[in-house]
UniProtKB/TrEMBL annotation:
Cellular component annotations (GO), alphabetically ordered: plasma membrane
Known catalytic reactions: oxidized coenzyme F420-(gamma-L-Glu)(n) + a quinol + H(+) = reduced coenzyme F420-(gamma-L-Glu)(n) + a quinone
InterPro entries per the UniProt record, alphabetical: F420H2_quin_Rdtase, Split_barrel_FMN-bd
NCBIfam families per the UniProt record, alphabetical: hi_GC_TIGR00026 (TIGR00026)
PANTHER family for the chain: F420H(2)-DEPENDENT QUINONE REDUCTASE RV1261C
Signal peptide (UniProt feature, chain positions): none
Species name: Cryptosporangium aurantiacum
One annotated GO molecular function: oxidoreductase activity
Domain of life of the source: Bacteria
Coiled coil: none
Name of the protein in question: Deazaflavin-dependent oxidoreductase, nitroreductase family
Similarity annotation: Belongs to the F420H(2)-dependent quinone reductase family.
Amino acid sequence: MGLLKNLMIKLHRRSGDRFMGMNLLYLTTVGAKSGQKRQSPVARFADGDDAWLIAGTNGGKPQHPAWYHNIKAHPDQVWFEYGGQTVQAQVEELDGTRRDEAWQKILVDQPRFDNYRTKTDRVIPILRITPV
């Protein structure tokens, strides 16, 4: 993991897993090409008692974030850290009406995420993550 990403994760943890007004979780995936574990802080949005929504905005860049490709390549090798515990995750990519409703829920919490949508031509993936 890069030095900058390590520093960001340490800063986020010190701030109570919040960054720029967003709640975070730490997503661990296995690299699609490298096979190495990769950790990424991602914004989380509550979706029921034990589930979260995460959005592959990648800051509005034209390509999906690396963690999304890693999940697609190794869907059974995903973990998340939240509240000091690391648990294996089940990830479901939402589509159709479910995706649209989830996106609206995200925008209620973080309206600025709509800026990412306007910067890109791709459909931003929305995933629902739950503990296994």
